[in-house]
Amino acid sequence: MRSKFHILSLFAAVAALIGTASAAFADGRAEPWQLNFQAPATPVMEQVVNLHDILLYISFAVSIFVLALLILVVLRFNRKSNPTPSKRSHHTMLEVAWTVAPILILVVIAIPSFRLIYFEDKVEEADLTIKAVGHQWYWSYEYPDNGNFGFVSNLLEGDALPEGGHRLLEVDNRVVVPVGQTVRLLITSEDVLHSFAMPSFGVKMDAVPGRLNETWFRVEKPGVYYGQCSEICGIRHGFMPIVIEARAEGEFNNWVTEAQGKFARVDQDGDVRVALASR
Ligand SMILES: [Cu+2]
């Protein structure tokens, strides 16, 4: 009983340590020596973290149970303590039990897991739509609901990286979204497979040429959130970051007005290549 208590308190201590470590990261990017996930910025990521925590407890319990059985076997059934082994080779009840128990565990895991998959999948009602297009090697974005403008977002590197900027993560044109509003995100590619990944949003979706993939997010608090392409897409795969800035609605509207003047319109026959041409 005593050793059980020790193991539990050790586990609780590790969990608390990881918890405090992750609470410090509120800025939407990975930190050096980070443990655990980035702080969730959307309802989807909150639920991803919750499911992960549940799974961690279940897998911890299973591991401890298996370890206990192994130790029992080593101690009780070695040659010295069990010189004449049993010749038994089958035990129906035992075999049923070790087949049914894992099935039940998987069913218990499947219920919240499927619920989350459907929650992540699509939104019925979105406040605005943004289209992200992967290119070798940068992203471009379109705002069909806000005047149909589009722009290219390129990595800032070398001397272009601003003072205090995060290396390999900063871009010239950030995606700006309104806080608290539901954004439908359409993702595609112009050339090869890319993947739009934003860890603190719980969004990771492939950008496939000729296909339009859909997902969504709703950022709960203002901030700057960093992501990267997560599909090996060529020599500069590691140099096409994603930066999303969540602003209050008024500031977002100001940005839209400014952006409509600054960026090219995405016309019906063209796409963001119009914007590219003026680059
Ligand atoms: Cu890519």
From TrEMBL:
<dbReference type="InterPro" id="IPR036257">
    <property type="entry name" value="Cyt_c_oxidase_su2_TM_sf"/>
</dbReference>
<keyword id="KW-1133">Transmembrane helix</keyword>
<keyword id="KW-0479">Metal-binding</keyword>
<keyword id="KW-0732">Signal</keyword>
<feature type="domain" description="Cytochrome oxidase subunit II transmembrane region profile">
    <location>
        <begin position="29"/>
        <end position="124"/>
    </location>
</feature>
<dbReference type="Pfam" id="PF02790">
    <property type="entry name" value="COX2_TM"/>
</dbReference>
<dbReference type="InterPro" id="IPR011759">
    <property type="entry name" value="Cyt_c_oxidase_su2_TM_dom"/>
</dbReference>
<dbReference type="InterPro" id="IPR001505">
    <property type="entry name" value="Copper_CuA"/>
</dbReference>
<keyword id="KW-0812">Transmembrane</keyword>
<keyword id="KW-0472">Membrane</keyword>
<feature type="transmembrane region" description="Helical">
    <location>
        <begin position="54"/>
        <end position="75"/>
    </location>
</feature>
<dbReference type="InterPro" id="IPR045187">
    <property type="entry name" value="CcO_II"/>
</dbReference>
<feature type="domain" description="Cytochrome oxidase subunit II copper A binding">
    <location>
        <begin position="125"/>
        <end position="258"/>
    </location>
</feature>
<keyword id="KW-0813">Transport</keyword>
<dbReference type="Pfam" id="PF00116">
    <property type="entry name" value="COX2"/>
</dbReference>
<feature type="signal peptide">
    <location>
        <begin position="1"/>
        <end position="26"/>
    </location>
</feature>
<keyword id="KW-1278">Translocase</keyword>
<dbReference type="InterPro" id="IPR034210">
    <property type="entry name" value="CcO_II_C"/>
</dbReference>
<comment type="function">
    <text>Subunits I and II form the functional core of the enzyme complex. Electrons originating in cytochrome c are transferred via heme a and Cu(A) to the binuclear center formed by heme a3 and Cu(B).</text>
</comment>
<dbReference type="InterPro" id="IPR002429">
    <property type="entry name" value="CcO_II-like_C"/>
</dbReference>
<keyword id="KW-0186">Copper</keyword>
<comment type="similarity">
    <text>Belongs to the cytochrome c oxidase subunit 2 family.</text>
</comment>
<feature type="transmembrane region" description="Helical">
    <location>
        <begin position="96"/>
        <end position="118"/>
    </location>
</feature>
<dbReference type="InterPro" id="IPR008972">
    <property type="entry name" value="Cupredoxin"/>
</dbReference>
<keyword id="KW-0679">Respiratory chain</keyword>
<keyword id="KW-0249">Electron transport</keyword>
<dbReference type="InterPro" id="IPR014222">
    <property type="entry name" value="Cyt_c_oxidase_su2"/>
</dbReference>
<protein>
    <recommendedName>
        <fullName>Cytochrome c oxidase subunit 2</fullName>
        <ecNumber>7.1.1.9</ecNumber>
    </recommendedName>
</protein>
